[in-house]
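Response to reviewer comment R2.3. The reviewers asked that we include at least one raw input/output pair. We reproduce the pair for SDR family oxidoreductase here without editing.
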Amino acid sequence: MRKLSNIQSKNIIITGASSGIGHMMAIQVAKQGGNPILVARTEARLKKLQEQLVDTYDVDCRFYVVDLLDLQAWNNCLHKIVEDVQQIDAIINNAGFGIFDYIEKSDWNKIESMVQLNILALIRAVHQLLPHFIERKQGHIINIGSQAGKIATPKSAVYSATKHAVIGFTNALRLEVEEKGIFVTSVNLGPVRTNFFELADPSGTYQHSVDRFMLDPETVAKKVVGILFTNKREINMPRWMSAGSKMYQLFPSLMERLLKNQFNRK
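Raw output as returned:
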């Protein structure tokens, strides 16, 4: 893989940085001497993480409190970040959420929020920062997708649709900017042991059924941060689920029959 530069002293925006994978990625960026720019809704968590990273790793860490569901506020925040920092080297679009439920039982407001956060807020960030990257002829955009964007299952129709959109957007964007010095990567994950499931699966049924297969958030964070500023097309984790998604693309009807019981474990 072609190396763009070292992560040392690079300014990297991480959305959804107050918990889960985003929190762990911020730590990994700081560990390697990068400057994490933390974005989330919860000020107390961001401030605590900022203080931890500055004290432990002596990096320039800033945080910005914003609700990404408010696209105008998010746009203003991005403008403020560029104004404050001047040079942005990468963004990891990590913020997102899912709710596992049948469509006929789903709350419309939650459906709309999933679409706004998982798709529109991500595209808004790219649209705002892309001219900055193009002008400098370098940058890295990492979009957190999901294996759910490759294999749709019952009770995840909207979530799968949003992640399918993220993967499609990322693939097209990569082709648009590949000659402009900008790297674009999608990260497609299976279930990760984070608080994601507190909202997605409050009953705990799905968590219980996939518990032994859950990815460790620190392992995921190390993998993602490790490919920063390299020309990496995709990260797919875990490998067995990635292999399953490839089989699904080739033989969808067969895979749906064979995995019907597994698909319905939510």
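The longest strand covers residues 182-189. Strands lie at 11-15, 35-40, 62-65, 90-93, 139-144, 182-189, 234-237. Further pairs are available on request from the corresponding author.
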